[in-house]
UniProtKB/TrEMBL annotation:
Keyword Metal-binding: yes
Protein name, as recorded: Adenosine deaminase
Adenosine deaminase domain location: 3-93
InterPro entries (UniProt xref): A/AMP_deam_AS (IPR006650), A_deaminase_dom (IPR001365), Ado/ade_deaminase (IPR006330), Metal_Hydrolase (IPR032466)
CC cofactor: Zn(2+)
GO annotation, cellular component aspect: cytosol; nucleus
Length: 108
């Protein structure tokens, strides 16, 4: 099971008063698999990047937490098993590149 979250529209529609009220941390702590999505972005003013940025700003997630969110979203998708495998490899490659960049800037 995969839960689809649209954080920006939840704030706009007043499902929560502010982003920090989204149950992101609870879901992560309890192992609930979810994806972060946009909901009618032209209307709510939040394309997918804005949703990801708003979640990061509110929760300060780690690289490993984002990796888990991205991997869980892929695994919970309707893609074929082969496509899921490709996408998970892409997620891992992005994480590895990011860690390499962090190591480079930390060492400098």
């Amino acid at each position: 099971t995969l839960l689809s979250l649209c954080p920006v529209s939840n704030v706009v529609l007043r499902g929560v008063r502010e982003m920090r009220e989204m149950p992101i941390r609870t879901f992560l702590d309890r192992g609930v698999r979810f994806s972060i999505n946009s909901d009618d972005p032209a209307y709510f003013g939040g394309y997918i990047l804005e949703n990801y940025c708003a979640v990061q700003e509110a929760f300060g997630l780690s690289v490993d937490e984002w990796r888990g969110i991205a991997t869980g979203a892929v695994e919970g998708s309707w893609c074929s098993a082969a496509r899921k495998e490709e996408l998970v490899k892409e997620v891992e490659a992005v994480v590895a590149r990011h860690r390499g960049l962090l190591a480079t800037t930390t060492a400098a």
